[in-house]
Each structure stands twice: as structure tokens, then as C-alpha cells.
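Readers of this paper often ask what the protein records in our data store actually look like. The remainder of this section carries one protein's record, kept here as part of the documentation.

:::
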Amino acid sequence: MNPTEASMDALRQAGDELADATVAALFERGEVGKFNTLMRYVSTAGAPLPDGLPDVAREYLHATSAPPDWVDWAEMEKARLFFIDNNVHISTALAFASMPACFVVPHVAKLLSATHGLKYPSKRMAETGQFTVYLMQPDAFEAGSRFLPAVQKVRLLHASIRHHLGRENRWDTQTLGTPICQEDMIGGQMFFSLLVLDSLHRLGIHMSEDGAEAYYYAWRVVGAMLGVDQDVVPKSLEEARQFLDLYMVRHMGPSEEGAHLTRQLIDLYEEVVPGTLLDPVVAALVRHLTGDTCADWLQVPRTTWDTLVKVVPHLLGVLETIEDRSPLGGWALDRLGHLAGVFELSSLTRGRVMHYAIPEQLKKSYGMSDSVPRARRWTPPAATVL
């Protein structure tokens, strides 16, 4: 189904009926504090729900305790292998392309500023990184996993943001639509899937068509579990390109909040990078992956590394050649990528597990493995003519 201005406008008015009703009931009955306290003990799938949990929450947790019945588990395993093969590249794309893409949509930047505060960007990145790592574990959808409870809590977190912004008159619903509406949720799904694949392509990563499609499919499953309407979500990468192109043309632009959040993101990763010599690489990567227009809107500084960073695809090409030709080299690079990802996530979380809770008030301040042939290399779908 081709998206249109009219269909996108309709999506701006829709939220998540199940989660919204659950959160509204918790606030109405004064049970949010009790829910958050008890849910800190629910961190793995299949664990008994604690006594005293509000009935409406218990009903929600039972209704959302399993993935959709249409999931193709063979496709999900392909996605997991794709993630293992490209985890450090995916982390790079999430940090330096997906998050800045959120900031280049002014109303999304405004919402992020209101809900996470401008002083704690590490929380947002840590939650995103931890969420992705949970998703790509072999037992992500089985008893004992941390992914399913994380999805359930994030869905309620989104609903609580809608609740607060709507009740506190801090959101112009008539102009901006429902906070975290269906259009924005699908747009976010595109940022974490198609835009990641675009970034890997821009970095010169050799991806198979099967691997790219499986990775996108995994995020479709995630979207369904987060309350995205599956009747309107793009089913293929080609449909995803049409949606993302129209979404960005409709909404992207400069904003004070977007520039501030980007500066905080760059500062955060400059602290993660050891020493100071390589600090300019952070801004250069953001500019390389988002393009000059978006980077200028976000006030990403220009550095001497802007030209040098363009050799990254060539360097990664050499490493991929080593990986393809040497099983030992492939193992070593996969292991190095895993350790790099662990280091990045531990730096952001300070070694802690991130807990997703319903805020009682908002802040005042606003591949595949080597067994799969690589002959058919994935290339991004063509841009949509709008």
C-alpha cells in the first residue's frame, strides 16, 4: 500500500489503544508507583508475576506476553546471524545515523527533550543499545529472556508519555498530532531498520539480500509488539523506502532541540572514545551518515576528519576480505566486534541494567554467517519520486 499525505495524516491521530487504556487506568487508580516498584522484579519472560500487581496491569502483561503468531522463526534466526556478523557496524549506525535522524524531525526532538531531558543522552542510547542486544539473543522470545519484559515496559512508557503530554497541555495535538502516534512509531521503526541498512551500505559493508530483509523483518516483529498497526506498516524494504521518504519530506527540518540533542550525543561519544585525538571522528561520522543538509540543520561541526572518514568503507572492505578468506580471521573480527559492542554499551550504562518504568511526571525541561553466499549484494531501494 503506497502511503499518501491523507493516510499519513490519519496515522498522526492514532496511538496504541491497549497500552493507552492500561496507563490511563493505572493513573486513575493511583497505582503507577506500585506498578513500577513491583515490575522492577519482573525482568525475565515466564517469571511469576508478583503479588499485588494491579489487575489492569496483569491483564496487559498476559495479553502482550508472546510475539505475534505470524512470526517466521527461520527468518528471525537469519536476522540474529546478520546481527552477530555486523553488530559493531549496526551499533555505529544506530548511534550516528538513527539517533540523529530522530533529532532532525523537530516534533520528535521536542518530545525527546521533554521526556528524557537534555542532560542525560546516555540514558536514551543505553536503553536503545540494551534493547537491541536483548532482541538479538538466541532465547529472546523464550522463557528466561529479558527482551519480552523490556518490550512490554517500553510500550507502556510510550503510552505514559502520551498520557502526560495530553493531560498537561504541553503538546499541541491539533498541530503535531498524537504524541508517539502511529506515523512516528512506524517512522522510528524505519530509523532502526531501513536507515541502519542504508548506513551499513554507506559504510561499504557487504550485506546479502537475505540478511538485509531478515534484519528488517525482525524490526517488523518488534514494531508489532510495540503496538504498531500491522495493517499499515510497510511489509517490504521497497514499501519501507516509500514510507520513510514521505515521512522525512513531511517532517524533517532544523530545530533548537534537535541541535542541542545532537551536541549532547556528540559529547557523549567523545567521552566514550579513549583520549582526545579521535574525538572529531564522532562528528565526522554523523555528518558522513546523515549527509551535509541534515548535519547542518543539527549544527554538526565540520572537522578535518570529514574527508578522512570517507576512507572507512575501504578499510572495512579490507577487513571483510580477511573475514571471508580466513575462518580464524573471521572469528577474531567477530569477537573484536562483540567486545567493542560490549565496551560501548557498558560505557553508556555504567555497567547497570536499564529499567523501563512509567514516569509519574515528565521533566520540566523540555549477513549472515559465512555459510550464506554473498554473491547477491544488497543495495538500498531507490529513492521515491514524491
